[in-house]
Structure formats: C-alpha cells, structure tokens
Amino acid sequence: MPISNYTTKVPASQTVGEIQQLLASIGCREIMLYYDQDKHPVKVRFSYPVAKQELFFALSANWEGVLKVMRQEVSEKRYLTEVHARNVAWRILKDWIEAQMAIVQAGLVQMEQLFLPYAVTRSGNTLYEEISLKLTEGKDSFLMLNA
Q1: Which helix (H) or strand (E) holds 14?
Q2: Of 58, 69, 132, 145, whose Cβ has the fewest other Cβ atoms within 10 Å?
Q3: Sign of the four-CA dihedral 78, 84, 85, 91
Q4: 96 in Cβ contact with 87 (< 8 Å)
Q5: Cβ(100)–Cβ(114) under 8 Å?
Q6: pLDDT single digits (tens) 73-88
C-alpha cells in the first residue's frame, strides 16, 4: 500500500496554514514556522500552556523520508519530485496532528503527554533528539534499557 496522501494536490503552504489553525484552535500559542535556505517550510514550533507555564514543541516535515518511501512504492514519476514530497510530508503531519487531537479530546491522554517526545529542551533539540543522542553516544541515561 502506498504512503498516505501520496496523490495530494494540496500545496505545503496551504497545509501549513491548516496546521496553524488546528494548533490555535486547541489553545496553542506562539506558533512559528521554520524555513530552509530555499524558503520552504520544514518545521512548525508551538507552545502550549501546562501548569501555568508554556511548553514548546517542534514537529518537522521530513520530506526526504517521504520521497525515499515514494520512490520504493510509487511508480508514477509525477509524484516523485521534491516539491510533491514536501506537500505529502506536510499533509501526513497534519493528519497525524488531527488524530492526536482526537485522542486528547476523548480524554485518553493529555496534550503534553502525547507531544512529550517533541518537547523542545534548553539546547533547542527535542526531547527525543536528546535521548537518541545519549543512546548513540553510549552515555548513561535515565532510561531503563534491557531491564
């Protein structure tokens, strides 16, 4: 089965706007976009109030990963471009955020619980990136591994 949204016709710029509206509608603040050197959006960063403070989260649209998968799964060349992969990556991210918000709205988890791996640390990395770096460097970690 091909990757989700691979036939989208929605440009990344429109999807990014939809993501901003979605995040604002659930109470996120300070929604910011990061762009690459070619002026393409690559990451959305936002804050969410938790216990009288703001937690920051960052989500990246990994278009390179999307393109790699599409090259393996999709044969139509019109879908195998960088621009299209960017559009697909942002669409997948939007769908994922919507699904996560449904879980929060159902009361199954808290917003900060779902997005914790994407919490921005003091170093500017996400919590996931910090843990991943420690694991690859073989440094001690607070995680229970092979327990």
Answers
A1: helix 12-25
A2: 145
A3: negative
A4: no
A5: yes
A6: 998 999 999 999 999 9
**CB-CB contact of 13 with 83 (8 Å):** no
Instruction: Read off the pLDDT of residues 95-146 as tens digits, 9 standing for 90 and up.
Output: 999 999 999 999 999 999 999 999 999 999 999 999 988 888 876 666 665 5
Residue whose structure tokens are 């009361």:
107
Q: Which amino acid is at 86?
A: R
Alpha-carbon distances, residue 121 vs 31, 52, 57, 108 (angstroms): 17, 18, 9, 25
Token pair for residue 63? 């278009």
Helix ranges (DSSP H) in 1-147: 12-25, 63-73, 82-105, 111-115, 127-137
Report the run of H or E that residue 66 belongs to, with start and end.
helix 63-73
Distance CA 64, CA 84 (A): 11
- pTM, two decimal places: 0.90
Residues 6+ positions from 142 with CB-CB distance below 8 Å: none
The two structure tokens encoding residue 51: 């216990």
